[in-house]
Amino acid sequence: MVNIGDTLIWFRILLILPFTSILTFILTLIICSQIPNNIEPDQNLPQISELGTGQAHNYFMSGFIVLIPQMLIMFIGRLQFLIQSQTIIHRAIIYCIHVIAIVSGIFVLIMAIVSLDDRPHIHDIGAIGTFGSISIYCILHTILIIYLFIHRSKAAKHANIIFPLWFLGCTIIVITCSIIWVITFASIPEYIAAGTPFLYFLAFAPQFWTKAKQLQHVTNLNFAGHYSNRTETKSEYEMS
Asked: How is the chain split into domains, by residue range?
């Protein structure tokens, strides 16, 4: 019963992480845009990395460092859910896909710590690695979900068509905007490409919620059974 309770708390924490991560990302960009940096005065929408220059670097670094553990825990939770919710895809494949997502945390850390002012090439490696690893994760994870939906007769928890459509739509947006950004170096496609993965991760929440509800139901049944056994034992003792 203690194990179920701990697992229930775990999935409740996972439930809020897709929302807190997108909030952390947005707040970081907003705060950095209000702090003096090295952006040209006439530049309306700077590149994301440029927001972390000058005095804004410490805020940029702090925001993304706070974001990293939220994303890593969320990826671990998603890995756990996929292993527990189906048996038709070997867990080694699921592990490999999520290793890519976890590696993205290293690139985010590099991007956050190394300022564009000091070592632009190393910062760019972190930024490109972040975009690349998260994009690859979204592509592979989407393929996995579509495969599970196609074989939904053997994976009942993946029978909802909304999830593969949502993941596919977000992945297409990420890929398209990333390509446009690389070709044009325009800011708007970069912001869309950087923000869309957080919308992608929001689809994790309903399945975390479903898992938490199932565990709550099991907890309630165990509690009811435990209480019933105690009542029966007490009644037998009084009768004797």
From this structure: 17-37+46-235
Q: Would you say the C-alpha torsion 13, 19, 22, 25 has a positive or negative sign?
A: negative
pTM to 2 decimal places: 0.86
Distances (CA, A) of 121 to 43, 65, 125, 165, 191: 22, 20, 6, 37, 20
Which residues does the chain have with pLDDT short of 70?
1-6, 42, 217-240
| CB 108, CB 68: distance < 8 Å | yes
pLDDT of residue 137: 97
Long-range contacts, stretch 5-8, CB < 8 angstroms, 24+ apart:
5/219, 7/215, 8/212, 8/215, 8/216, 8/219
Phi first, then psi, for residue 185 (nearest 5°) are 55, 30
In whole angstroms, give the CA distance from residue 44 to residue 22: 23
- The predicted pLDDT at position 7 comes to 78
Alpha-carbon torsion, ordered 53, 56, 59, 65, to 10 deg:
0
